[in-house]
C-alpha cells in the first residue's frame, strides 16, 4: 500500500519545525522501506493571504484523500483583526469538522531528562504517561444556535453545548480501545452536576462500557475536580475521556505538567477509510510562537513526535514510532536542548536544524 501524506506547515514556527519532519519522513523512506508520497498545501494566515481563505476547498479535497495530514501551527498577530470566519484557527477547525476527526489524542508524557522543568515537584511527574482523549467535532465548539445578537438594547453572546448519544458513544469507544493497549483504565470527565448534556455524557459512557468494555476500569469525575486531581496527583490517570471544551483546557494543563509544551504531539482520528486507515490529522500541541518565528530556534520535537503518532496510528508502524520516540529520548538524555528546554544552570542551546541533525544521527545509529 502506498503511504500518502499532506503537509500543511502553516504559520509562525510551523514551516521551520516541519522542515525537520520532512527530513525524518525521508529517512523512513530511505532506511525503512516506507516511501511516502508527500504533497504540501497552505493553512492558516498564510492561506488567507495567498488563497483568500484559512483553508481552500482544493486543499480540503487533498486532505480528504490522503492517509494522513500533518499540520505545523496556525495563527499570529498579523491576522488578529480578521473576521471570525477568516481567522487562521478556522482552517484548523474546518479540517477537524469536515474530516469528522472526532477523537483527539493528546498524550501528556514526562521525559525523564526534563522532569525538573515541570512546575510540579519532579517526583510527582517523573514517569508520567497519560493520554487525554478529547471529543473534537461537537459540543460548544460547533453547537447551534451560536452568535452575538441583540436583545433589547444590549448584546447577547450565545454558544450551544450539544452532544448526541452517538457522538458520545463513538469517542468513548476510542478511549476504551486505547486503554486496552495501555494500562486499561479510563476516567471520564463532565459536569453532570450542572449540565444535562453532562448527565447524558456520563450515562452513555457507562452504557458503552458495560455493554462492550467491561474489562476496562472506568471511573467518572466532575471536570473541575478532575482538573484539580491532574495537578495534585497526575500519575493516577491512564486515559482521560472528556468533551471538546473541557478537553481543550485540561489538555493544556496536562501539557504544562510535563514542563515541555514544545515536546507534545497530538493525533485527531476519524472513522476508517476504504483502505482501513482512519481519517487522521497530526499536529503539535504548541502554537505558532510568532515571537520566535523565523529565527531557527524553535523546538521541532513536538512536530517530529506527531509524525511518530502517524506511524503508529495511520501507517501501522508501531516499531517505527518506537524507534523515533527512542531517538528523541536519547537525544534529550545526551543533553541536547533547544532554548525552550534550557534550565537555570544554562548551557548552549541548539537551533531547530541541529536538533533535527541530532535526532537523525540517533536514527542512523539505531
Ligand atoms: C487546540 C487549540 C484550538 C482549540 C484553537 C487553536 C482553535 O487551542 O487545539 O487546543 O481550541 O481547539
Ligand atoms: Mg487548546
Describe the SSE topology.
Blueprint: E1 3-10, H1 14-31, E2 36-40, H2 45-51, H3 57-65, E3 68-73, H4 88-98, E4 103-109, H5 122-125, E5 129-135, E6 143-151, E7 154-160, H6 165-180, E8 185-190, H7 196-212, E9 217-222, H8 223-232, E10 239-242, H9 244-257, E11 265-272, E12 278-284, H10 301-313, H11 318-333, H12 352-365
Parallel strand pairs: 1-2, 1-3, 3-12, 5-10, 8-9, 8-10
Antiparallel strand pairs: 4-5, 4-11, 6-7, 11-12
Helix pairs in contact: 1-10, 1-12, 6-7, 8-9, 10-11, 11-12
Magnesium ion (MG) binds at residues 248, 252.
Brief overview, please?
The protein is of the alpha/beta class and about 375 residues long. The protein has twelve helices and twelve strands.
Q: Roughly how many Å apart are the termini?
A: 26 Å
Indicate the mean pLDDT. Answer: 95
CATH architecture of the largest domain: 3-Layer(aba) Sandwich
Percent of residues in helical segments? Answer: 40-55%
Q: Give a quick account of the main beta sheet: strands, pairing sense, barrel closure.
A: 10 strands, mixed
Derived from helix and strand composition plus strand pairing, the structural class reads alpha/beta
Task: Give start-end ranges of low-pLDDT stretches.
Answer: none
Shape: globular
Q: Which strand-content bin applies to the residues?
A: 15-25%
CATH superfamily of the largest domain, by name, is: Isopropylmalate Dehydrogenase
CATH topology of the largest domain: Isopropylmalate Dehydrogenase
Walk me through what this model shows.
This protein is α/β, with parallel strands linked by helices. The protein folds into two domains: 1-114 and 261-366, Isopropylmalate Dehydrogenase; 129-256, Isopropylmalate Dehydrogenase, CATH 3.40.718. Helix content is 41%, strand content 22%. The protein contains twelve helices and twelve strands. The strands form two sheets. Strands 2-1-3-12-11-4-5-10-8-9 form a ten-stranded mixed beta sheet, sandwiched between helices. A two-stranded antiparallel ribbon has the order 6-7. α1 (14-31) links the parallel β1 and β2 (36-40). α6 packs across α7 (196-212) and α8 (223-232) runs parallel beside α9 (244-257). The mean pLDDT is 95. The site of 3-isopropylmalic acid has 4 residues, from α4.
Amino acid at each position: 500500500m502506498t503511504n500518502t501524506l499532506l503537509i500543511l506547515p502553516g504559520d509562525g514556527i510551523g514551516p521551520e519545525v516541519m522542515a525537520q519532519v520532512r527530513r525524518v519522513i525521508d529517512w523512513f523512506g530511505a532506511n525503512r522501506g516506507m516511501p511516502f508520497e508527500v504533497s504540501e498545501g497552505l493553512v492558516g494566515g498564510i492561506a488567507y493571504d495567498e488563497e483568500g481563505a484559512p483553508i481552500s476547498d482544493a486543499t480540503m479535497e487533498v486532505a480528504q484523500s490522503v492517509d494522513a495530514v500533518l499540520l505545523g501551527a496556525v495563527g499570529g498577530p498579523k491576522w488578529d483583526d480578521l473576521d471570525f470566519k477568516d481567522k487562521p484557527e478556522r482552517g484548523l477547525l474546518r479540517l477537524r469538522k469536515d474530516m469528522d476527526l472526532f477523537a483527539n489524542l493528546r498524550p501528556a508524557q514526562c521525559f525523564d531528562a526534563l522532569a525538573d522543568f515541570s512546575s510540579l515537584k519532579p517526583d510527582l511527574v517523573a514517569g508520567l504517561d497519560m493520554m487525554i482523549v478529547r471529543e473534537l467535532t461537537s459540543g460548544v465548539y460547533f453547537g447551534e444556535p451560536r452568535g452575538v445578537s441583540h436583545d433589547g438594547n444590549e448584546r447577547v453572546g450565545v454558544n450551544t453545548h450539544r452532544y448526541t448519544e452517538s457522538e458520545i458513544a463513538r469517542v468513548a469507544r476510542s478511549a476504551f480501545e486505547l486503554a486496552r493497549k495501555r494500562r486499561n483504565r479510563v476516567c471520564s470527565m463532565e459536569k453532570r452536576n450542572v449540565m444535562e448534556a453532562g448527565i447524558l455524557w456520563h450515562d452513555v459512557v457507562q452504557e458503552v462500557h458495560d455493554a462492550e468494555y467491561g474489562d476496562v476500569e472506568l471511573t467518572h469525575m466532575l471536570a473541575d475536580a478532575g482538573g484539580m486531581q491532574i495537578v495534585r496527583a497526575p500519575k493516577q490517570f491512564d486515559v482521560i475521556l472528556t468533551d471538546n471544551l473541557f478537553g481543550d483546557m485540561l489538555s493544556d494543563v496536562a501539557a504544562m505538567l510535563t514542563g515541555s509544551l514544545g515536546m507534545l504531539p497530538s493525533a485527531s482520528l476519524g472513522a476508517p477509510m476504504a483502505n482501513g486507515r482512519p481519517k487522521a490529522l497530526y499536529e503539535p500541541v504548541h502554537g505558532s510562537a510568532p515571537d520566535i518565528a523565523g529565527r531557527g530556534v524553535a523546538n521541532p520535537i513536538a512536530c517530529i513526535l506527531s509524525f511518530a503518532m502517524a506511524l503508529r496510528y495511520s501507517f501501522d508502524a508501531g516499531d517505527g514510532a518506537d524507534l523515533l520516540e527512542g531517538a528523541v529520548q536519547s537525544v534529550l538524555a545526551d543533553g541536547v536542548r533547544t532554548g525552550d528546554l534550557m534550565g537555570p544552570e544554562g548551557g548552549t542551546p541548539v537551533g531547530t536544524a541541529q536538533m533535527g541533525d541530532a535526532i537523525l544521527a540517533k536514527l542512523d545509529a539505531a
